[in-house]
Amino acid sequence: MRLASHFLNQPPRRYTDPQMRIAADPRLLRPRRPFQANLAPIFAAPLLLLASLALLPLPTASAQSPGKHLLIYAIDVEGGQSTLLVAPSGASLLIDTGWPNGNGRDADRIQAAMHDAAITRIDHLLITHFHTDHVGGVPELVKRVPIGEFLDHGENREDSDIARHDYAAYLKAIAGKPRRIVHPGDTISIPGLTAIVLTADGEHIAPDKRVLGPGIKPTPNPLCAAEPHWDLDTTENPRSTGVLITYGKFRFLDLGDLTKAKEIPLVCPDNLIGTVDLYLVNHHGFNLSNSKAFVDAIHPRVAIMDNGAHKAGSPEAWQTVHESPGLEDLWMLHTAEDSDAAHNSADALIANLKGGPDGAYLKAVVSRNGSFTVTNSRTGQTKTYAAK
After folding, report:
1. Rounded mean pLDDT for each run of 10 residues along the chain, 388 residues in total
2. What is the number of domains present in the chain?
3. According to the 3-state scheme, what is the secondary structure of the chain?
4. What is the pTM of this model?
5. Which one of 56, 167, 202, 292 has the minimum C-beta count within 10 Å?
6. Domain contains 48
């Protein structure tokens, strides 16, 4: 994928996108009003002390929620990726930063999600790979937001001028700041969560009890025999750093732009990941990713496709995810305008509709018991997924 402005006045190429549209910031959710106890008069003398204590103001609902929920924001960066996770402890992980917009559009949208989550800094910034729509927003974001550490898979591996340019811009932007190169099996320290690296720089994790759980062994995947052989491409995509985030009984999977040739070793011949509750659809829903043997093996309850209006959201990938056994809903950041109605989700499940303003995000609020909600910031409507 490449920044659209880089290809203006040139014929379309693979991984390109029409010029990104400028959109308003997403609307923010209104904070709830503080709640105070209102006790009836108490006449019994021994209870007067308790009554006076009860009259003290209770914490607001917004102040209580960080101690109870994991927040996940799929931010609209117009077909790129930027995903914000905020733990109940308040610690944060941002995965990718979107495009290098001259007007700071994607940084604005990241900051809008941060504002909604009541945070002012990013503790960890993970760059999945060095494509413009993932790493391009770093130079602008570091000017605005304190960032604790930068995580990536190491040196750019793609032999292209734009990838070399983006990697050099990234290194310049983070010069003098903490940087850690991660490998499969590494962890990211986020109090309250377990975050483990599954893929990085073309490698994948070996069977690991931290992924499947103590005493649980990888299980054979019967779909592997029917899965075609997929050739490995030489871009940064198969080098993507991917993570599994666990909070109590809830599991969230984000593998960046991992392509089919690198998805398959995670689930064939044995499934090394297990099942997940929420799946950020690989590669924005391109059909170069999301193989059937992979998607069906991870068995997501809910999926979010971070596609653009004219980028990804391909019918083949949409269909594979949509018909995965056990899937309850497939949410999308945009109407896939180059697809058809049969391969788009219902409007209520799409953050940014055709012909409407852009910038709305999807927000998951997760409880330790595995239950969670997804809210469409365009409509304010929320859907609940009960614990299982």
Report:
1. 37 36 33 35 37 35 58 98 98 98 95 98 98 98 98 98 98 98 98 97 95 89 97 97 98 98 98 98 98 98 98 98 98 98 98 97 98 98 97
2. 1
3. CCCHHHHCCCCCCCCCCCCCCCCCCCCCCCCCCCCCCCCCCCCCHHHHHHHHHHCCCCCCHHHHHHHCCEEEEECCCCCCCCEEEECCCCCEEEECCCCCCCCCHHHHHHHHHHHHHCCCCEEEEECCCCCHHHHCCHHHHHHHCCEEEEEECCCCCCCCHHHHHHHHHHHHHHCCCCEEECCCCCEECCCCCEEEEEEECCEECCCCHHHHCCCCCCEECCCHHHCCCCCCCCCCHHHCCEEEEEECCEEEEECCCCCHHHHHHHHCCEECCCCCCEEECHHHHCCCCCCHHHHHHHCCCEEEECCECCECCCHHHHHHHHCCCCCCEEEEEECCCCCCHHHCCCHHHEEECCCCCCCCCEEEEECCCCCEEEEECCCCCEEEECCC
4. 0.84
5. 56
6. no
